Amino acid sequence: MPELIIAPSVLSMDYTKMQDQLREVEKSGAKWIHYDVMDGHFVPNLSFGPDILKQLRKSTDLFLDVHLMVTDPAFFAPVFVKAGADSIVFHTEALDNDPAKVKALLDEIHALGVKAGFSVKPATPIEPFLPLVQDADLVLIMSVNPGYGGQSFMPEVLGKVKALDEARKELNPDCRIEIDGGINGQTAKEAKAAGVDTLVAGSYVFKDDIPAKVATLC
Ligand code: DX5
Ligand code: ZN
């Protein structure tokens, strides 16, 4: 299993204190920053475009993990790579849940020189996508319905984590299993026990002492 990584989510940052909070994230030992892109169409919310990512790229060496919650990920993937993304994750639902289309976009993203992964919403089964573990650097399991921070963890998605963990043993042990939504000290334990190695955390981490909160997830 890959080493544990914590990816604090920009969505829950205090935007009046972004520089200070970035320094705190760096101090915490978290190696990634999770960047949620919402287009107001794939999910009923809008978040950040590429210009803010460019600014983040200038201000930190943290790995920039971009989560595209957009209807047209093939259009937006190169835009965010150009802006400084280190990885791009897109949703299978945006590609008609068609494994062939998912594989094609993973390949396109790899050709841009960054890590590539796919994500599934809580209601989307993982089985059709298990063979793609060999083509992906990461698979992101949503543990809330995407669109907003601060929602409650859905433990029923952990069955998908277990299935992925089994699949990667055979196909690609380096493939990361990432989880996103409702992660706190308790749900992090459940997720890690099921096979997660990459934890996105938003509202839990940015409430007060960032390094102390990150430490409780490790
Ligand atoms: C939700 C986003 C998450 C969000 C998680 O659609 O994809 O990355 O920031 O926030 P918390 O950790 O508060 O559930
Ligand atoms: Zn996210």
Task: Explain what this protein looks like in three dimensions.
This protein starts with a strand and ends with a helix. Helix 6 links the parallel strand 7 (176-180) and strand 8. Helices cover 37% and strands 20% of the residues. It has 218 residues and is α/β, with parallel strands linked by helices. Strands 1-8-7-6-5-4-3-2 form an eight-stranded parallel β-sheet. The protein is globular and about 45 Å long. It is built from eight helices and eight strands, in the order E-H-E-H-E-H-E-H-E-E-H-E-H-E-H-H. The structure holds D-xylitol-5-phosphate and zinc ion.
Total of helices: 8
The main pleated sheet reads as: 8 strands, parallel
* Biggest sheet, spatial arrangement of strands: 1-8-7-6-5-4-3-2
Note the overall shape. globular
Identify every distinct bound molecule in the structure, by name, code or SMILES.
D-xylitol-5-phosphate, zinc ion
Strand content range: 15-25%
Radius of gyration: 16 Å
Structural class: alpha/beta
Element layout with pairings:
Blueprint: E1 5-8, H1 18-28, E2 32-38, H2 50-59, E3 63-69, H3 73-82, E4 87-91, H4 99-111, E5 115-120, E6 138-142, H5 158-171, E7 176-180, H6 185-194, E8 198-201, H7 203-206, H8 210-217
The chain binds D-xylitol-5-phosphate and zinc ion (ZN).
Key descriptive features of the protein:
218 residues; alpha/beta; 8-stranded parallel beta sheet; 8 helices; 37% helix; 20% strand; globular; binds D-xylitol-5-phosphate; binds zinc ion
Describe what is shown at a glance:
The protein is an alpha/beta fold. The protein is 37% helix and 20% strand.
